[in-house]
Amino acid sequence: MSDGWRPISKVPDGEYLRLSVIEDGHVHALVFVCRLVDSAWIDRAGRHVEVRPTHWQPWDSSGDGE
Questions:
Q1: Domain count along the chain
Q2: Which tens digit of pLDDT belongs to each residue from 16-31?
Q3: Could you tell me which residues are beta bridge partners of residue 19?
C-alpha cells in the first residue's frame, strides 16, 4: 500500500487513526476515526468496533466534522 499507509504492526496506541481493511480482496478505508485502546479498536464515542485493519494513517481531521 502507498499514499502514507503504514502497516498495522506499527500502530500507535491511543491515537486517532484512519484504518483500512481488506474485504473480498479489495482494500477499503474506514470513513470514521478509530483508536487502539488496550488491544481493542474503539470509535470516537468510545464504542467497540469489530474490525481487523491491515494498515493505518494519521487521521486528517480538517473538514471531517469530527
A1: 1
A2: 999 999 889 888 999 9
A3: 56
